Amino acid sequence: MNGFQLYKKYITSGQNAGRDSEQWAYAQTLNEAFSLVGTTRLFNLLEQAEATNQRIVLQYPSSTEVITGEACTLQLASWESTPKPADRMPVSSWFRAYEFDY
């Protein structure tokens, strides 16, 4: 599969899965990665990840790196080293993940 097909596969799988599932979390990761690096870089990373049986993860900076302005980066990691749902997002992303009904 090419990068677009992989993206579509994982996004569709995430949309069909429950909100707290690993598929949903990976789809959210890919959505955030899409906004960080754009189409070409994300699709290339997806192809590379698929070829090496890995996944894309977001690497958030430490609190000292945030002060110096370092951005979130994308890395490839094994499927076994997937972070637990509570460890996935920093607080700022955690707030955006909830919908507020006023």
Automatic annotation (TrEMBL):
Q: Which domain of life is it from?
A: Bacteria
For this entry, the protein name equals Uncharacterized protein
